[in-house]
Amino acid sequence: MFYGFFQKNVELYNSIKNATFDNLILRDSLKDAIQNDFAHFFNSREMYDRYRIPWKRGAIFIGPPGNGKTHTVKALINQLDKPCIYVRSFKPDEDEQQNMAQVFKRARMTTPCLLVLEDLDSMIDEKNRSFFLNELDGFETNTGIVVLATTNHPEKLDTAILDRPSRFDRKYNFDLPGDKERGAYINNWNKHLQVELRVSEEGTVEVVRQTEAFSFAYMKELFVASFVQWMSSGGEQKMDEVTMAQVQQLRAQSNMN
Which of 82, 140, 91, 161 is nearest to 116 (CA)? Predict the structure, then answer.
């Protein structure tokens, strides 16, 4: 849903179909935990019914931008192969409550399904919070709905949304990548590059050391900028040198020094 109406988005559809977990790097066991959790939920209808537990789920991906939340959402949609309603806004303002009602109504008609709320903190405010919570708290009517939200700013969400287990009972934190993840990210790039474009083993160690506090998005920007600079030099510079110079530029531009 976008600005008050449902529409099929070819660009979004294609980006979801191209998203997989294969080359996604996340901290610790986060990738496996997410995949196992959602697959188990959709395969457990009979168990929920047997113990009279409402078969619904709320989960929220939390963390600074550029650390894999959106890619994980799309890969999950692709992998689960369930109907999905992807919501980016409840606006225009005068129709927000009506739009919320329409979104949940459509989800209840499409179960089992995923209802994705991107950047939840930008959607919910004091004016619409109560209405949203009433829709979210539907007991029998929300059977088979997984509400999957993302947020870069959990501090902007009211505790009634963030800290009530019956609403978002799973919180997954997408933290900045550690040394291990940044090293894996560099090695993944190297696998797909010609030899002269690769960072050496020694260079990888140094780049990992120098990129503390870099998000995955910054790591991608680092490599793209390095390729451009290498091409501009006519391929005469070593990639290790080019990459380290770009690290320093990015740190300076983002005030990381």
Answer: 82
As given in the structure block, the two tokens for residue 189 are 């790039």
In the chain, where are the structural domains located?
A: 10-173, 179-253
pLDDT of residue 96: 87
The sheet that has 113-117: what strands, in order across it? Answer: 84-87, 113-117, 145-151, 57-62, 170-173
Find all residues with CB under 8 Å of 172, minimum gap 6, and list them: 30, 33, 34, 59, 60, 61, 62
Nearest to 62 by CA among 181, 178, 161: 161
CA 27 – CA 222 distance, rounded (Å): 20
Q: In the predicted model, is pLDDT for residue 3 greater than 50?
A: no
Residue 122 CB: number of other CB atoms within 10 A? 16
Contact 47, 6 (CB under 8 A): no
How far apart are alpha carbons 44 and 213 in whole angstroms?
Answer: 39
Convert the pLDDT of each residue in 92-135 to its tens digit. Answer: 766 889 999 999 999 999 999 999 999 999 999 999 999 999 99
| pLDDT, tens digit (0-9, with 9 covering 90-100), for 189-198 | 999 999 999 9
Q: Write down the pTM of the prediction.
A: 0.92
Q: Which residues contact 239 (CB under 8 A, 6 or more apart)?
A: 196, 197, 198, 199, 200, 203, 226, 230
CB–CB of 91/103 below 8 Å? no
When the pLDDT of each residue in the chain is averaged and rounded to a whole number, the result is 92
CATH superfamily of 10-173: P-loop containing nucleotide triphosphate hydrolases (3.40.50.300)
Tokens of 146: 């997984």
